[in-house]
């Protein structure tokens, strides 16, 4: 296990000498295996290791047992340890999501906050190590397949995503258990993992065992291999479609987009796109929309299909897309347009008043890859967020019960408490704009952004949001 894990870490450049690694520790078999192996490898890798346990406030004494076990294990291994307590059930109610999903989000939020704190204390790079293994990746592929996912979702769990690393993703569950038993290493069992209440558990405990025992004993390996092939195909299609976009742009997408009637435009000859296979057309449209600043999280297959249907139509046909974008046909040209005011709220919703100025109720969104040494803007009306941390559709709205922001400590503060502390008049609070993902507020416009979504050294893609209350740009 140790040799294979070391090779896997080095293959994917998960950590360099001098880096910090925070291991998420539940006390279960997978996380115990991860922690013990990382401890064995820490000198060879030249890393400093810490562990964090998240107590979800569920399962009563069983959860207390897990926390106590994790703490004792870290004492035994001489690894700095911290327990963070949350109320996953309450967070689920506030966000309108399942308890399982609320717990997952909280774990990543807390681990990210701990990593940021460690970096502020002087550690150069801090990674978050999670104990995902091969079976988890196979389950993800099946789960996404049943949900109707595209190729990216069928690629499985990536070994590295931002600061998150998965050192034992190469291993299967049975290998982990065999290794722990062979060394006599104890771990705790989570009773909820054996149930079938959650879709994931149903796949893990019923579907995969049946497939393995009745169809093919190598099913997990074969699913993972298929995921690798799909990942390779996805990268190839992305590259091929990207080259087509660069070669055939009449007015380039991205930073060199043309302008027409105050709008950013990208123009392509419809006949040229029709010459390509349909899958290349689909990837090309996604790339064009992304490079014009449209977050792909809000682009569905229906949107892509509506654009492709334009190719066989005549001049004047047009479709509306998210974030104020349109695509239309004009004399054989496929024209994508993005207005400068990419997200307009109704006039009745006003922004906060500060220093005699009013932040207008319009937000402009752009997504772009982060460049080295890019300075984060420090102004009131332009903010940057880590785009890859956003999992659901964003909304621009006024406050609602349960809204909160994340603090530097990883804890949460309700928007109501923030407004009281900021001495925002009661009669003005319902007029303050919020940019939110569910109940988690990214930006109280004109005031503060959530620590969780802040840009860090590990950020790959940036979501820039600018109000038209200021012309300053972070780019």
From TrEMBL:
- Family indicated by similarity: Belongs to the tRNA(Ile)-lysidine synthase family.
Using the UniProt record, give the first listed, main subcellular location.
cytoplasm
Q: Which UniProt keywords apply?
A: ATP-binding, Cytoplasm, Ligase, Nucleotide-binding, tRNA processing
SUPFAM superfamilies of this UniProt entry?
Adenine nucleotide alpha hydrolases-like (SSF52402), MesJ substrate recognition domain-like (SSF82829), PheT/TilS domain (SSF56037)
Its EC number(s): 6.3.4.19
Tell me the domain comment.
Answer: The N-terminal region contains the highly conserved SGGXDS motif, predicted to be a P-loop motif involved in ATP binding.
Q: What class of enzyme is it?
A: ligase
- Could you tell me the superkingdom of the organism this chain comes from? Bacteria
Its annotated function is as follows: Ligates lysine onto the cytidine present at position 34 of the AUA codon-specific tRNA(Ile) that contains the anticodon CAU, in an ATP-dependent manner. Cytidine is converted to lysidine, thus changing the amino acid specificity of the tRNA from methionine to isoleucine.
Cite a single GO MF annotation.
ATP binding
Binding of ATP, residues: 26-31
Return the GO cellular component terms, semicolon-separated. cytoplasm
One Pfam family recorded for the sequence:
TilS_C
List the lineage, top down: Bacteria, Bacillati, Bacillota, Clostridia, Lachnospirales
**Could you tell me the Gene Ontology terms of the biological process aspect for this record?**
tRNA modification
Gene from which the chain derives: tilS
* Catalytic reactions on record: cytidine(34) in tRNA(Ile2) + L-lysine + ATP = lysidine(34) in tRNA(Ile2) + AMP + diphosphate + H(+)
Which protein is depicted?
A: tRNA(Ile)-lysidine synthase
Its subcellular locations are: Cytoplasm
């Amino acid at each position: 296990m140790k040799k294979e894990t070391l090779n896997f870490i080095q293959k994917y450049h998960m950590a360099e000498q001098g880096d910090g690694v925070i291991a998420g520790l539940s006390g279960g078999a997978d996380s115990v295996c991860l922690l013990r192996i990382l401890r064995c490898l820490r000198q060879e890798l030249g890393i400093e290791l810490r562990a964090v346990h998240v107590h979800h406030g569920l399962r009563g004494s069983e959860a207390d047992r897990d926390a106590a076990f994790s703490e004792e294990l870290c004492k035994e291994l001489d690894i700095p340890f911290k327990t963070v307590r949350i109320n996953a059930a309450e967070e689920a109610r506030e966000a309108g999501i399942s308890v399982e999903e609320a717990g997952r989000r909280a774990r990543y939020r807390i681990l990210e906050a701990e990593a940021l704190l460690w970096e502020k204390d002087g550690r150069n790079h801090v990674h978050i190590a999670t104990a995902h293994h091969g079976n988890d990746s196979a389950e993800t592929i099946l789960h996404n397949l049943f949900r109707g996912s595209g190729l990216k979702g069928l690629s499985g769990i990536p070994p590295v995503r931002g600061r998150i690393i998965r050192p034992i993703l190469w291993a299967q569950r049975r290998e982990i258990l065999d290794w722990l038993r062979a060394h006599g290493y104890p771990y705790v069992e989570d009773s909820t993992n054996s149930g079938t209440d959650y879709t994931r558990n149903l796949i893990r405990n019923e579907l995969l065992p049946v497939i393995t025992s009745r169809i093919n004993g190598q099913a997990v390996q074969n699913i993972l291999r298929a995921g690798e092939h799909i990942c390779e195909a996805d990268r190839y299609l992305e590259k091929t479609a990207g080259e087509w976009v660069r070669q055939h742009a009449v007015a380039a997408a991205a930073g060199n987009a043309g302008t027409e009637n105050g709008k950013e435009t990208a123009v392509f000859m419809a006949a040229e796109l029709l010459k390509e296979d349909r899958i290349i057309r689909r990837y090309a449209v996604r790339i064009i929309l992304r490079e014009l600043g449209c977050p792909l999280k809000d682009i569905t297959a229906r949107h892509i299909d509506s654009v492709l249907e334009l190719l066989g139509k005549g001049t004047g046909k047009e479709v509306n897309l998210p974030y104020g974008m349109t695509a239309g046909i004009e004399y054989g040209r496929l024209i994508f347009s993005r207005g400068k005011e990419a997200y307009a709220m109704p006039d009745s919703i006003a922004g906060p008043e500060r220093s005699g100025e009013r932040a207008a109720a319009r937000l402009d969104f752009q997504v772009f890859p982060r460049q080295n040494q890019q300075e984060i803007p420090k102004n009131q009306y332009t903010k940057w967020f880590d785009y890859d941390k956003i999992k659901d559709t964003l909304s621009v709205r006024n406050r609602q019960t349960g809204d909160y922001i994340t603090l530097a400590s990883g804890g949460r503060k309700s928007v109501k408490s923030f407004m009281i502390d900021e001495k925002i008049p009661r009669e003005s609070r319902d007029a303050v704009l919020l940019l939110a993902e569910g109940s988690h507020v990214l930006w109280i416009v004109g005031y503060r952004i959530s620590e969780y979504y802040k840009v860090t050294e590990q950020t790959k893609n940036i979501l820039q949001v600018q109000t038209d209350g200021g012309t300053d740009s972070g780019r």
